[in-house]
Amino acid sequence: MSQPLFEEFEEISAKQWKQKIQFDLKGADYNKELIYKSRDGINIKPFYNSEDIKEPARVPSPQHWEICEKIYVASEEISNHRAKEVLKKGAESLWFVIPSDETRIEKLLKNIPVDQVKLYFSFLFLSEEYIKKLADFLPEKSTGVHLNLDIIGNLAKTGNWYANMQQDHQVLEKIIGNSEKFESVLSIDSTLYQNAGATIPQELAYSLAHANEYCNHFSNKEISTNLKFQFLVSTGANYFFEIAKVRALRLLFSSLASEYNLNDSCFILAQPTKRDKTLYDYNVNLLRTTMQSMSAVLGGADAVYNSPYDAIYHKNNEFGDRIARNQLLVLKNESYLDKVSNAAEGAYYIESLTTQFAEKALEIFKEIEKGGGFLKQLQEGVIQRKIEESVQKEQEQFDKGELVLIGTNKYPNPADKMKGELELFPFLKNKPRKTLIQPILERRLAEKYEQERLEKE
Predict the structure, then answer these.
(1) Mean pLDDT, to the nearest integer, of 103-114?
(2) What is the pLDDT of residues 350-383, one digit of tens each?
(3) Under DSSP, is residue 324 helix (H, G, I), strand (E, B) or coil?
(4) Which of 108, 218, 278, 446 would staple 76 via disulfide (CB 3.0–4.6 Å)?
(5) 223, 177 in Cβ contact below 8 A?
(6) Which residue from 105, 179, 117 is spatially nearest to 144, judged by alpha carbons?
(7) What is the number of other CB atoms lying within 10 angstroms of the CB of residue 454?
(8) What is the Cα–Cα distance from 260 to 218, expressed in whole angstroms?
(9) How many whole angstroms separate alpha carbon 211 and alpha carbon 203?
(10) pTM, 2 dp
(11) Which DSSP category does 234 fall into?
(12) CA neighbor of 95 nearest in space, from 307, 255, 389
C-alpha cells in the first residue's frame, strides 16, 4: 500500500530554520552574513518556504514558445533567401527590421509560408500607407503577424518623434483602426530600459507606465477594442531574477489591462541583454546568452530571439547566427524546455521574487502617475535621471570588481587582441544632434575597460 511521500517527517517552520542557522553561525550576524542586498532593492534570504508566499501569483503563461530569427532587411532578395534558409534550419518565426518604406513586401515575403509562420515587423519609420500595403499582401488567414510600432519608444530612444506628437498619434490611430490582419500592433520596447542600465523594478515600472500612456490615449476612442499589446523584453544576467521579471511583467500588465477593460494577456518577445556582452573573451557571451534565453523561456516568453555571441563587433555571419539558433534548439529539443508550461510556478523563491518585483514596480509606477505620467516625466528628464543614477551605481560595482564579467574585469586573457576584428563599432556613439528630449542611451558595462585595452594593443 503506497503512503504519501515525507509524511513521516515533522514540518519545520521558517522560525525554527532561522534559529538553527543562527545557532550554527556561532554569534555572527545573520542579517550581515546571509542576507544579500541586491541593486534592485530586493533582499535575498538564505532559504524560502511556503510562509514566504501569501498567495501564489496567478501568472498566465503560454503553452509553447517559439524560436525566432531576426533579419535586418538591407536587400529584399538576400533577406528573403536567408529567411527561407533559417526556417529550414530550425527557426519557427521571423522578425524583420524594415529600414525604409521603399522595401518591397512582395519580394521580401516571396514563397514564405505566412499562413504557417509567425512574423514580426519592426520599422525605422512610421507610415500608414506602408502598413496598408503589408496588410493587403497578407492572406485572410495567417498564423500571426505582429507589428512592433512604438512611437513613445522611438521618442525615448532617439529623442524625437517621427514627425511630431500629434501627427504620430494620428498615424498610429489609423493603423490600429485597420488592424484586423495583425495579431498586435502596439509594442512596448522595454529592452531600451534594461540595456540602458535600469534596475528590474524600474524596467517593469517604466514598461507599465509606457503602456499606460497608450491605454490613456485610446481609452475614449472606438478603436480601443483593437488594442493588443506586445512587449519586447531583454533578459539580464541574474538568472532567477529574470525569470521572476518576465512573470511580474505579465502580472502587472494584467492588472493594468483590467482597469481599461482590455484583453489582459500580452505577447512577450524576449532576447538577451546587450549590457553584459563583452568584446574580449567573446566566447563567454555564449554562456551568457544561453542562461538569459533560459530565463526568458522559464519566465514565460512567447518567443525568444537569441543574439549571436559576436553581434557587438561582427556583421551578420552564418556561423554566429547558426550557433545562436542552435542554442535555442538545444534548449527546446535536448533540454526539453518546451514540455512544461509555467515551469516556475510554485517555486517559493521565484514566487516571492515575482511578488516583490511587482510590488516595487507598482510603487514606482504610482510615483510616475502622480508626477504627470510617463510621457511628461520623459520630457522633463526624470526617467533619464533615474536610470543614470542606477547606471552609475552599477558601473561603480563593476569598476571595483564587485560585479564580475569573466574574461573582462576578472580572469582576463592578456593574449586577446581585438583591434583587427572590429567590423562594427562596439561602443556608444556620441553624435551631437538636435533633439526634443534627452534620449535614453544603451551602453554596455565593459565599454570603458575595452576602449582602454584597445588603445594599448
Answers:
(1) 95
(2) 999 999 999 999 999 999 999 999 999 999 999 9
(3) helix
(4) 108
(5) yes
(6) 117
(7) 16
(8) 10
(9) 12
(10) 0.94
(11) E
(12) 307
